[in-house]
Amino acid sequence: xxxxxxxxxxxxxxxxxxxxxxxxxxxxxxxxxxxxxxxxxxxxxxxxxxxxxxxxxxxxxxxxxxxxxxxxxxxxxxxxxxxxxxxxxxxxxxxxxxxxxxxxxxxxxxxxxxxxxxxxxxxxxxxxxxxxxxxxxxxxxxxxxxxxxxxxxxxxxxxxxxxxxxxxxxxxxxxxxxxxxxxxxxxxxxxxxxxxxxxxxxxxxxxxxxxxxxxxxxxxxxxxxxxxxxxxxxxxxxxxxxxxxxxxxxxxxxxxxxxxxxxxxxxxxxxxxxxxxxxxxxxxxxxxxxxxxxxxxxxxxxxxxxxxxxxxxxxxxxxxxxxxxxxxxxxxxxxxxxxxxxxxxxxxxxxxxxxxxxxxxxxxxxxxxxxxxxxxxxxxxxxxxxxxxxxxxxxxxxxxxxxxxxxxxxxxxxxxxxxxxxxxxxxxxxxxxxxxxxxxxxxxxxxxxxxxxxxxxxxxxxxxxxxxxxxxxxxxxxxxxxxxxxxxxxxxxxxxxxxxxxxxxxxxxxxxxxxxxxxxxxxxxxxxxxxxxxxxxxxxxxxxxxxxxxxxxxxxxxxxxxxxxxxxxxxxxxxxxxxxxxxxxxxxxxxxxxxxxxxxxxxxxxxxxxxxxxxxxxxxxxxxxxxxxxxxxxxxxxxxxxxxxxxxxxxxxxxxxxxxxxxxxxxxxxxxxxxxxxxxxxxxxxxxxxxxxxxxxxxxxxxxxxxxxxxxxxxxxxxxxxxxxxxxxxxxxxxxxxxxxxxxxxxxxxxxxxxxx
Length: 757
Description:
The protein is an alpha/beta fold.
């Protein structure tokens, strides 16, 4: 199914297209007037170079064969990318690491009672799709980092397999202890499903793609449409990445040949129970064999069966056995040295490995990265010289566990802590709107970049198109008014799921994650059908949005690399952190109110958690009312941060007056050195509770959401898990990080005030 503009969106377009986009403050933030003029000239030349034809040929080559970690074509692609970088005139090399990457040796899923059924566990080649038949090179359908196991037990259906689903089962009087659970994809990251199942006593886990979420309910299935066919399977890692990503055996250090490694049994991030993914074709007989209560309405998928929860009479045999050897990684790193600030780095990355052929994930993002590098080569021939060093990275091993980026960051952590200005990431790319997420110190910057990029379909700027969509889809009048009036569109916060994670959340480097999409629905994610044929039939078929991504990313990298003064903004950060603080305070109040209401219902015997009268309910035990938490230290820290941000903004406005000559003074070098540390200030060395690898105090992947972000995670998750002692301890820790950021901003403001007295 292709997403098209709604009548509301069309109406909004007609109303708003005449309104000019809000103008950025000054010409280019961080540039003197003279430098901005030169920069814009180079950017215009750059944006004219990327070619859809080049992007198509890059994808054709890189997605021609399966190229998972450790495969021959993975290495061949890395060497091909290296040769391309060098042909563009860039200095480039391959950095290698050795990581634990299990691949399957034995996989069995079979229904042994009340009838017999053996799952195929295989995706068939499809006519007209030539690469889907490369079976000898394809990784089988499996979940990487599932522990080996051979178990037989009753089956229980657990919906999406998130903590709330187990609470619902408990109210139904159903336990999964000693059972194998079957969960559907979506609702959370896949690795959360076996994690929560094991915590509740399950001994095995199956994850399937339900057609309601990912199949014929959404539209025609491949090859007739873009959606997942009956036997399509989503491969993927189930490593417990919310604890730490990267090589399970070398947490916190680069997985070089001489690295000290844990024993596999000591690795915290490998699952506790065996896991396999299956298609909805294989899942249907298993689900149809279940009895027990009818599943709640919202648990029922798109299969033509009555969904029951179980347990039994369905009994399933699950066996998983893998090869647990080390595999090589090939990170391809290219550099353009900075002319006057070579020790300040702008880093741009996308991964090149895939589960199978990976045209959409990741080559749709890797191809624009190559085209950006080609364009830079052309500019270098014309005399362009970036102020700062530009580092381009084609990562290996992202799919299993962010392996290539994490090991590279861990190996270069000390150098990055002193040199890295920002990391700009992409992954998949499609047709539609520009997705913007990242550090809020870069919110204003990336909004200004988006104002300079033309959307290839509407010919509006991509910023204006995003604004119109925000107005048309706003759920409240307040949100609609904000989309119309706020100078900048809000960007999302980053959780995990791609290569920005080690940069932002471990080392504290301001990061952005960009990509186009929203009009490119499809269901071939992590399957053999994610290939050149599918992409060129159902996605960005003319590669014009690939060109748009190259233009967007390349402009952002150039602008960061050339600025006299690093273009961070702290007012957006302060406002956003203030919103997060209000959210966690409201979360506590809502939790208190919910417990009070639940206890009242229990006292009065009217407890109900469902609208389905057929559902037998076991009322929960009464809970103690959550205690008062003192948020004063957090509120005071937000206030101080806001004042410091305002001071810096006023100092910058003064420095930008009279053509911004103050920004070009030699003293700006020391100011940039201060600003470069601004994201680091938001980290704490010993990290978050139970996962010290994650150091950022504002953004982290959720312990029970995986990819999904938790903001002010130490406080928020403690409240969500009703760990009141921990919540009380985390509030001052967050305040301490905000205080460090405030001190840095005030120091930068003082330096800036001296530049423009």
